[in-house]
Amino acid sequence: MTDFLAAEDRALLQRHGLDSFDALWARQLDAVDEPNTSGEGWSSVFRLDLEGQGYYLKRQNNYLTRTLSHPFGEPSFSREFRNISRYRELGIPALQAVFYGQRKVDGQVRAILLTRALDGWDDLDSLLQRWPSLTAAQRTTILQACGQLARRLHGMRQVHGCFYPKHIFLQATASGYQAQLIDLEKTRPLLFGLRDRVKDLEPLLRRASVWNEGEVRQLLSTYLDQPQDAALVDNWLTRLTARRSHKETR
């Protein structure tokens, strides 16, 4: 597999001698959290700052995911990079890849995924913690941004698989908020219509428990492109509430 290097970041990485797999692998950085381990493999995330531009450098060694298409395993970053690329092609707002590459060294598979940091953005989880202090206008535009994001995602026949508040990032704009997604490892095609859509959307509403019914209706109104009192919004609210109750009582 040929290494990927985003044209927009090439010059900056070159100036710092970080435009190759070996250089990014060797760069000494402090991990942002404890590494994940699986068998003899590991996966770790590091913060990289270059001339005011922030990045997250993710490195794996023999940290493999086995699927039907890859029965002997592939780096989980490989799947995430494919999904990032697919989202970009489909116009679904999401984090941006800067570099991807993998190597086999002494019988073990190494992988690197470098993405742009979302500096200046807030994850929805942190906004929910401040929800009572936000203005009515801020709440409305956040709900609309989330609804638009879900509408675009499912309209492009994709299921995120982890549509949680911590994976939705928002940024205030002159006209409201814009939203995008991170953590695309579990993304897959939307195959089962309404069932897939409800299953994907329900975890967001379950975790955003601070939202009242009126606010959920605002989100669904945008997602479905229907008035808040429309029968279709009623139907979706009933389906989502039933699935949420089922999940909470398991």
TrEMBL record:
<dbReference type="Pfam" id="PF06293">
    <property type="entry name" value="Kdo"/>
</dbReference>
<keyword id="KW-0808">Transferase</keyword>
<dbReference type="GO" id="GO:0016301">
    <property type="term" value="F:kinase activity"/>
</dbReference>
<protein>
    <submittedName>
        <fullName>Lipopolysaccharide kinase</fullName>
    </submittedName>
</protein>
<dbReference type="InterPro" id="IPR011009">
    <property type="entry name" value="Kinase-like_dom_sf"/>
</dbReference>
<keyword id="KW-0418">Kinase</keyword>
<dbReference type="InterPro" id="IPR027023">
    <property type="entry name" value="Put_LipoPS_kinase_InaA"/>
</dbReference>
